[in-house]
Every structure is written in structure tokens, then in C-alpha cells.
Give the backbone structure.
Amino acid sequence: LSSSSSSFNEKKQALGKGITVSSDLVVDRAQECVITMTNGEDYLDMTSGIGVASTGHCHPTVVKAVQDQVAKMSHAQINMFYHTPLLTLMDRLRPYTAPLDTFCFNNSGSEAVESAVKLARHATKKQNIIVFNGGHHGRTIGAMALTGSKTMFSAGFGPLMSGVYYVDYPYSFRCPSAGFEGHAPDHCGKEVMRQLETLLQQRCHPDDTAAVLIEPVLGEGGYVPAPKGFFQALRTFCDHHNILMIADEVQTGFGRTGKMFAINHWDTVPDILVMAKGIASGYPLSGIVAKRALMDLQPPGSMGGTFVGNIVATAAAVATLDVFEQENVLQNVQERSEQVFKRLRCQADRLPFGPVDIRGLGLMIGLEFAGAPKGFAAQVVKHAREQEHLLLLTASIYETIRMIPPLVVDGATLDDAVDRLVRSIVHVAG
Ligand code: PMP
């Protein structure tokens, strides 16, 4: 029998090894951009719980909405009733997702990606899905087949879902035919479009291909924004071949890039948009949105689930939109983004292991160190956590560090975070 007096080291053994915990910190509480551990120490959170705490930790508007809702009802089964938070949420989201106007909900990003793939396959009566090297779409049995960010996610779990075909992401820093450090975004985008056309001719006929699934900014794959014009070209490609375009905005959505959805930067409308993470400031909620004509091709009863459209999570999502509108969060993201990239670029000559690609969009901030030894990015993240009390994440198979601050972060906090980050990089590089 385990006893409540067993040590931390004994207790933590109860967690299976499949879930990696990157530190021994135990969180107690959090406010805005600061997380306080049970030992009373504060840490500056530049991860937002992997892009989730969009309005900062425990925003009073979100806390109140959740507390009010919990006191009234915590679980309303969406297969049995409508509820006001869900109806309000759809109403409030539509101006942002237009012309996509019909929703389907899930609990996690992976599930929502799978809903999008189910819809695409069923609606088109075709099966193939084209995805991109470096893309991350989740860990469930279907989503891991679609994930090309790290083999760690799928190794040993096969056979994977069939009908999945990969091309390169338009990653201009590493564009295969432009050569390493190519930085030729136009060329890179065109090269990927060429790969797509070749794929359709050699392996994946348009008559068998349901959809292209893509992140507007590669997330777990390294915070790589697609080049200008890329999504317009992809839209034309999809229309020409009668293939659906699915934008995975799980990480890029809800203001993370300075627009409500990142695809808006390219003035392109996908057929299906996938959303999760920041939607409800920390409560499990995800979903897809499409035009009614497409969404209504879902067979009745084929979607949903026990916890889908949870009444507390949807109340938190409505409150999240309140905060966005009342506090002009999108404008803050745009201003803070300009500030952070300027500050990082000003310090670029202090950064080791160049060339260093400082990149991203909005408050998706990535730094890739082309010449760094394996493990450098992870060491910087560890040093920053232990010595600077700054929480960061790595990304991709390359030496990349990412910062994902809450979208309500203020200028002084962000400057402070950049300074702690740069100090950590310089220290670890020795
Ligand atoms: N898509 C993208 C773009 C993601 O970044 C993630 C998670 N990092 C997922 C899907 C999967 O989401 P979840 O972890 O909520 O299943």
C-alpha cells in the first residue's frame, strides 16, 4: 500500500515512462506569466503550457466564468442537450472563422485532427492524406501516422494508418534544393509545390486523395512559417485537383500569430480548420469548423463523445474570447512580436553556433542554431530553468529553442525573458 507519507521520488514512480516530465518541479499555482512551485519559487513561463494559457494563467475573467459554471453544472452531455456556453461559443466564433460556419467539437488536438480526417475521407469518398515532413498532428493512433516531426511519436506502434503521403514543409532555412541555409523562401515554396505535383503523378492519384493537412506555421517541427504566397498556391493546387485543404491551427490558432487564425496571414480559406490549445485558456476543448455543405456530410452519430463540448470548457472559451475583445489581445501579440524579434535580432551577434535562424510569427518565437552540437538546445532550456527560472521548450530534430509566452504578456516581462534566454545561451555555449 502506498502511503501519503512516501517520498516524492517514490510517488513519482507511479507515473508510467510514456509520459516524459522534463523536470522535478511540482507546480502549485500560477498567475499571468508566473508559475509558483510548491517550494514557493517563481518561474517565468514562456511556454504557456505548450501554447495553451493564451490569456495568461488564471485570468480573472476566465476564472469567474469557470467558477460560475462549475457551481451550476459541470457536465452536460452534448448528445442529450444543447447548452448555452456551446451555443454562445459557436455564435461568437463565427465572425472569426467565416466563411466556415459549422462546428464539431472534441477534447484534444489529436482528436480534432482525426475528426478532420474522418470528415475529409467520408465527404470525398477518397482516402489519401498528404502531410508534411516536420508536421505534428498528435499522438493518437491515427494522428501519429500524420506526424512527421519526430519518429519518437510513432516508433514501434505500427502498422500505422495507411494512405498517408509526405512531402517537405516549405522550410526555407533548410530548403532541400536551395541547399542548407538556403533562405530562398520563394524558391522553397515552389519546390514544395513541385513535390506535390510529382507526388500526385507518381504515388498518390488525385482521385484517391482526400486532403492536404498542414500547419500554417510548423509548430513542434520548429516554428517555421510557410513563405509568403505559399498557401495561395496550395489553395489553387487543392482546387485544381479536387482535394480538400485542412489547416491544423491547433498551435497557431486563437491569436498566437497576431491574427485570430494564422491562415489569415495568407488570405486563404481552408476547407476544414482544426483548433484546440489556446481556445479555452487551459480547459480541454478542441474542434473543427467547415462550411455547412461539407460538415453536413458527416454521418449522424459518427462524431462526438462523452466529454465533447464540456460545459465548463466552453464557458472558459467564451470568457477567453471576452478577454481577447476587451483587452485587444491580438494587438498586444502584434506589438510584443515586433518587440521580441527586434530585441533578439539586436543581440544576434552574441549568439553562438551560427548561422542562427531567428524566426516565427506573432508570439511563436523560434531560434535554430545551425552549427550547435546535438543536445545544445535542451541544455539551454535546462540551464534557463535551473539558473534563470525561465521556462522554455525545444522543438524539432534540429537545435531549436522556442518561446511561447501567454498572449497577454507585457513588454517588460518579455524583455526580461529574452535577456534570461540570451544569458542562458551564452552561458551554455561557454
Ligand atoms: N496539432 C498541432 C499543430 C499540435 O501542435 C498538437 C500538439 N502539440 C496537436 C495537433 C495535438 O494536440 P494534443 O496534444 O492536444 O492532442
About this structure: The chain has twelve helices and 17 strands.
